[in-house]
Design a protein that fits this description.
This protein has a single domain, classed as 2-Layer Sandwich (Heat Shock Protein 90). The model has no long low-confidence stretch (mean pLDDT about 85). It has three helices and seven strands; from the N terminus they run βααββαββββ.
């Protein structure tokens, strides 16, 4: 498992991406799947920075990555005021002239499962992607 905490500012997005990239590299996840997971991470982290600042200042962004035999889970959380996930159409591409609104659509398209827990104390976006992790001499790689 990987956990990382950063100040909620734009500079944290590439840092979060680097941690996820290194985590996936350690697991030897297929590069094309890693690309999808990293793009979803970028979108979720960018949303946390754009919309998830604490009322009293920037606050923190938290990253958690874990893996089991068949999936990788990446969770991004912030300390913002939250939002109503049911008000966001994640299953249809927004109008091409709209400013923003594509991030959660992309996350949903790139990942197998997406769970959003939003409250007045912050938002957690948990993204799961099913992967085939390499084996060593027929024995699955242990949970990271």
């Amino acid at each position: 498992m990987l956990e990382f905490v950063a100040q909620n500012e734009p500079a944290c997005v590439p840092e979060l991406r680097r941690h996820v990239r290194d985590f996936l590299h350690t697991l030897r996840v297929d590069p094309s799947i890693s690309y999808d997971i990293l793009l979803a991470t970028d979108e979720a982290a960018s949303n946390a920075v754009a919309h998830g600042r604490a009322p009293h200042g920037n606050g923190l962004v938290r990253l958690r990555c874990s893996a089991d035999r068949g999936s990788v889970v990446v969770a991004i959380s912030d300390e913002g005021s939250g939002f109503d996930p049911s008000a966001v159409e994640m299953h249809r591409l927004p109008n091409w002239t709209a400013q923003g609104g594509r991030g959660l659509f992309l996350v949903r398209e790139l990942m197998d499962e997406v769970h959003i827990d939003a409250s007045s104390e912050g938002t957690v976006i948990e993204m799961k992607r099913h992967v085939e992790l390499p084996t060593t001499r027929g024995v699955p790689i242990p949970e990271a």
